Automatic annotation (TrEMBL):
It comes from Gossypium darwinii. Acts as a Mg(2+) transporter. Can also transport other divalent cations such as Fe(2+), Sr(2+), Ba(2+), Mn(2+) and Co(2+) but to a much less extent than Mg(2+). It comes from the Eukaryota. One of its GO terms (molecular function) is magnesium ion transmembrane transporter activity. This is Probable magnesium transporter. Homodimer. Pfam families: Mg_trans_NIPA. The chain crosses the membrane at residues 6-25, 45-62, 68-93, 105-125, 145-165, 172-197, 209-229, 241-262.
Length: 345
């Protein structure tokens, strides 16, 4: 039991390190792609031709695979909060590689996120034993989780269809909210697939059940949506802020979904539940501190031929100095001289 949890713990730590690094590598790729064409935040897909972005994708895939395997050996309430390490990795790397300065208050925000996630881990409920994918399907089709799924999909659709076109470029919660809500469904599907793989390796073939393939299709669909809007968030906002906010919301929705689907908190004492709530409040406080220290990014100039439209006005005097510029835009003396010569011709 302890050996299994140790494997899950190590894999979760490795996953967080790779995922945190992938934020930085992908953003550098997005920046390079944005110089030569439409940015991802504007709906462009030029980053698909940028090798550096694919290196970041490969790094994220390695991290996600490690995370996937970690769910096989350890409960979700242990694996998911350990994603806090990715906050530290991405914030530190962004500070040195992307020149996104991490203020002292930002460091405090990171610390609060880590403390909150530690509290969550220490008071997390135990994972129940599951014997087949059909049992997970029963959990997924219970009325409470169906209501959560419908609410999550409805929220994502509102954010995608209404909020993203209007507020996506100015409000970081829009893109991150889509990733987090959809991400909670991703984790539930991935957990089901992980359990199916584990049971299959133990000798009970789960590939024969149609539920396994439904969970796989849901996971793939949700991952594609997450990646699209995560790219948009990374291309629009400061990486040191995207990472912790994504972690806080993603962890919150994932643990909520797990609690509804698997009834993780049934039988938990009031003190343990209160400690979990304190952990969430601490994490959310950390993200609020980080958000308050966010420096707006300087937008890239995509059209070098856009006129600046200076307001220049001229007037004529009768004292020999026929052309004068009113101080709204300075011109060189040679330009004024040419105007004078042209006037006397």
């Amino acid at each position: 039991m302890y050996s299994s949890n140790l494997k899950g713990f190590i894999l979760a730590m490795v996953s967080s390190a790779f995922i945190g690094s992938s934020f930085i590598i992908k953003k550098k790729g997005l920046r390079k792609a944005g110089v030569n064409g439409p940015r991802a935040s504007s709906g462009g897909y030029g980053y698909l031709l940028e090798p550096l972005w694919w290196v970041g994708m490969l790094t994220m895939i390695i991290g996600e695979i490690s995370n996937f395997v970690a769910y096989i050996y350890a409960p979700a309430v242990l694996v998911t909060p350990l994603g806090a390490l990715s906050i530290i990795v991405s914030a530190v790397l962004a500070h040195f590689m992307l020149k996104e300065k991490l203020q002292k208050m930002g460091m405090l925000g990171c610390l609060l996120c880590i403390v909150g996630s530690t509290i969550i881990v220490l008071h997390a409920p135990e994972e129940r034993s599951i014997s087949s994918v059909e049992e997970i399907w029963e959990f997924a089709t219970q009325p409470a989780f169906l209501l959560y799924t419908a609410s999550a999909i409805a929220t994502a659709l509102v954010l995608i269809l209404y909020c993203a076109p209007r507020y996506g470029q100015t409000n970081i919660i829009v893109y991150i909210g889509i990733c987090s809500v959809i991400g909670s469904l991703t984790v539930m599907s991935i957990k089901a697939i992980g359990i199916a793989i584990k049971l299959t390796l133990e000798g009970t073939n789960q590939a024969k059940y149609f539920q396994t393939w439904i969970f796989a299709m849901v996971a793939i669909t949700c991952i594609i949506i997450q990646l699209n809007y995560l790219n948009m968030a990374l291309d629009t906002f400061n990486t040191a802020i995207v990472s912790p906010i994504y972690y806080a919301l993603f962890t919150s929705f994932t643990i909520l979904a797990s609690a509804i689907m698997f009834k993780d908190y049934s039988g938990q004492s009031a003190s343990s539940i209160a400690s979990e709530l304190c952990g969430f409040i601490t994490v959310l406080s950390g993200t609020a501190v980080l958000h308050s220290t966010r420096d707006p990014e300087t937008p890239l100039i995509t059209d070098l031929y856009t006129p600046l439209s200076p307001k220049v006005s001229w007037y004529i005097q009768g004292n020999g100095e026929l052309w004068k510029q009113k101080d709204e835009d300075e011109s060189s003396p040679s330009f004024i001289t040419i105007l004078r010569q042209d006037y006397f011709k």
